[in-house]
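In practice, a research group might receive sequence data for several interacting partners and want a quick structural hypothesis before committing to experiments. The following worked case mirrors that situation: the sequences arrive first, and a predicted assembly follows.
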Amino acid sequence: MSNATLVSTTVNGDPVQFACPTDESLMTALRNRVGLTGVKEGCGTGDCGACTVTVDGSLVCSCLVLGVEAEGREVTTVEGLSQDGELHVLQQKFIDHAALQCGICTPGFLVAAKTLLDRNPNPNETEIRYALAGNLCRCTGYDKIVRAVQDAAKDMRKASKKRR
Amino acid sequence: MRYATPASAKEAAGMLSKEKGAAFLLAGGTDLLVKLKMGMVEPDLVVDIKRIPKIDQIQTSAKGFTIGAAVSGSVIGQHKGLKAAWPGVVEAANLIGSDQIQGRATLAGNLCNASPAADSVPAMIAAGAKAVIVGPQKKRTVPVEKVVQGPGKTCLARGEVIEAITLPKPEAKTGDAYLRFIPRTEMDIAVVGVAISLKLERGVVKKAKVALGAVAPTAVVVPAAARALVGSKLDDAALEKLAAACSAACNPIDDKRGTVEYRTRVAGVLAKRAAKIAFQRAGGAL
Amino acid sequence: MGHEQKYVDKKYEVVGTRFNRPDGIDKVTGKARYGADASAPGQLVGRVLRSPHAHASIVKINTSKAEKLPGVKAIITSADLPDVTGGDQGLADILENCMARGRALYDGHAVAAVAAVDEQTAAQALKLIDVKYKKLPHVTDVDEAMCESAPVIHDRIITRGVEPKPTKPSNVAARTQMGHGDIEAGFAEADVVIEKSYKTEQTHQGYIEPHACLASVNPDGTAELWVTTQGHFVFRNVCASLLGLDIAKLKVTSSEIGGGFGGKTHVWVEPVALALSRKANRPVKLVMGRDEVFRATGPTSSTSIDVKMGAKKDGTITAAVAEMRYQGGAFPGNWAMLGCMTAFACYDIKNNQSIGWDVVVNRPKVAAYRAPSAPMAAFAVESTIDELAKEIGIAPIDMRLKNVAREGTLAPYGPTYGPIGIEHTLKAVKDHPHMRAKLKKNQGRGVACGFWFNIGGQTCTDLNISVDGTVNLTLGTVDVGGSRSSMAMIAAEELGIPYEQVRANIADTTSLGHNDMTEGSRGTFSSGMATIFAARDAISVLKQRAAKMWGITEEDVIWENGQALATGDSHSNLPPLSLKEIAAKSGRTGGPIAGHNEVVADGAGMGFASHICDVEVDPETGRSTIVRYTVVQDAGKAINPDYVEGQFQGGATQGIGWALNEEYIYGDDGCLQNAGFLDYRIPVCSDLPFIDTQILEVPNPLHPYGVRGVGETSIVPPLAAVGNAIANATGVRMTHAPMSPPRVLAGIDTLEHAS
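A structural hypothesis for the assembly, expressed as tokens:
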């Protein structure tokens, strides 16, 4: 490995260390060094969103981030969505609405949808569609994906009202 | 490949100027990492500016805005002051790619990548943006329209780094807008981009600046198009002259994203539409 | 055991409801493992070197520098893949497509491959392989390839189906003709004749998961292959043939598949990975990059089609002729023949003729793409029908209803139709609320029909009942879109137990007999049938065991609602035995309880659909926006309606992308210019509205539940539905797909200048 660098980072709330070449993407580092294969390489050039993660809360394509950039930052992937064996409401709605067929794009969509709903709990259909435009799906035609996100948003708004 | 995280723009500039091999700056990485993946570049050194304090912040003052070189599109899109002052610049920046790209892409990066089709460049030009350039010895400020010299080429000398993009405080009754043509609704490189900034006086256009993207090797400023609007309230004749001037200024290529004729034609169409939006934003009545 | 395939009308408890799929949790948590998600100890990274030229002699390949690079463990060329196909031209073509033999036939054609310890070393090794090419003249356009002056790609191709047989080789592999009636007489009867030519550009299936595999060959001739595929049994057979391995010694496990649509029914890098592993004596992981997927897998044909149709004033079509030219890439295929079979299939036209030309060009070897060859033919025919309707002054739907094919109609490609659903879908479209939605300025509405045969094929299924009464259903057809849940539902339905008690999984090739691929919309149809029969098999065993437990004869036992019941007055005191109870005692009544079925499922039942599309066209830029879209399709019987709707919506979306923006763009140098998702533009989420669906059920008489294949038909109508909508919005008849903004604007200009 040329120029291997030790990276100390946080992934899904856990402290993680890995060594990777300086020119390796975060996507590859997560898959091959940290062993989290929920992140998928659909294109490697930021055009499909299958590798979507968040870094310090920002939605990014992990294929366009260097592994070494994760130093000291917080990375979340699809594996961090469910807590203690309980699916996040978005994950459950994707299953309930048959919003996945082959499922390869699903991890990316879930991270993108969660990030959308975290900043905008009540998006309209257009806002959802544009927020998810960076995630390509070839199987579903997006119909059931949008419905799943709308339904999850509704449940999440109800739950947060209850908490107040 | 070596990776460095300097603590200041001056330190970054020093690293670049001392490097004997191929050195590249890294801000959002949405261009650099694509080139890396496709084998188009083989950097010896990558200088990541994102750890420089305050370089990811937008400062507002009486004079205007200073946008740090590492400020991402999504941060720009959420800045209320910037959106109110220069909605055209903000919408142009926010059109660059998906939400994922917006989480990383920067104005400085978009500018320095120097693609003829860069979305933010025509809008920055129309708004009178400037680039604050830091070298190992000195600092200089250059209008954005002078930065790009050709596809992939900028006026930056070896060792120079853009530290920030500045935008002036808009004069009263100013409005700007950016429109681009793409075949889908998102995710495409601009086939044509048009940015227009207008200042009105008593409901009539007093000053105008028109810049086109993706229709020439670099963004094109079209003074004739601006002159077509000055003194008008955007009547049909003025808009036709605007469209004609824009089409005449086009010098595009035929490529997989558009033909010469198509780009030339649509530049005129978008110019009329962008002018109307800018006019209304400036307080004009159509 | 023989079982009746005939459809039996009955009420269902589980089938037809909506259940969550069993693999859902793994897919939403990132646990599911796809082609690139497996690793083996000591694995090497495989990478392929590809030709940068459209057509070139490979003069010399010098691998010596690359071999010396530390960390390189194997380098292969065609020399490491000797032709052991024994004269089978089809297999030989596959072999040559996987690795060039002396000549690069398209931009991206594999010429060598390396296996190295890591990605960087493999990439560096590729750069060190020195290939000397001698460029040859190339041809990439289907019409140009048919000209006398075109460079001939294969000396061995002499056109089949032409009399007298040609004396010289050409790029025309075959001519096909089908149809019936008297064409001349038919046109003589016509009051109106429309004649038009159409072109469609090449598209790719566009699955988000690139091809990937992990190959491991042992010195004793055993081997393992983990691969993303639509058919692991077929891959096993092909790879074994190409590498000279015994079939049973090659264990192929299908990973979860991240989309296929026909493109993963062929091998591309898998034989290469196996050959690398064989040479390096270590596992090799080979993952294709996105640009490689576009350049060097199996896109669909580009076509050039002429259609001539004549009709009487009352709308009856009296004659229809289509002449269609399809390119199959660098190797001959049957694509034009398939187009001929589907072109007029929706209609009862007394005098019809389809002529197909299969042509080779310097492009990647064409593979199936969801109803292969049908969308292009439908674009041409359905557009022409609308033109005819306009000329006559009859509504497009009524024109189609007037000529619709029914049970008893002689299909253009030979058979007589049984009960089919095309008329039902047209009537449903006519009554659909979409037809009454108000159209705004610059908007237009189009209707189009589509057809696909659907296939059956070899299927093998095991059903095993555990001692706690839960059931393992072992399938051999790859699950591309959720069929696992449908199979579990069918097993639950047959056995009379809750859906949650059945667990369906896809087995590797050592665990089941041969299963054909998941293609031709056969997954639910065939595996469903085998599941039904395997369950009925298991039920006979359950009844036997119950009889034993009661000490009565088998003839007095029936199975109902998940229980064995003893019939007859003398047994009225015997309480029913549930499946759970019987299973619990199985160890003492004869051992594990199982059912099994092998079937060549026949009679998949044709799938017909009608679509409605509303489009808005920006008259100043030619850009089209889909405003409203409805799919009405006959599914025979929808086992899980959620997943049937999903197939309708997914296929329609691919068709819409094909209609509007997707195309392979070649330069004058014959090289592909848009080998990525940036410039190969598939629809994104914001491009589309919700897609309305209506499932019709005209039972397929050759399936116990009436199931018809559904996966493919939905990609067939959209090209024409969009084209007809654009015509109604702008007055412009588009004849070149995709109908991208510059083409539409040019059409609008031409119309303006003409008026």
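Before designing any experiment, note the following. The domain at 35-136+215-257+264-296 of chain C is CATH 3.90.1170.50 (Aldehyde Oxidoreductase; domain 3). Chain C is about 30% helix and 25% strand.
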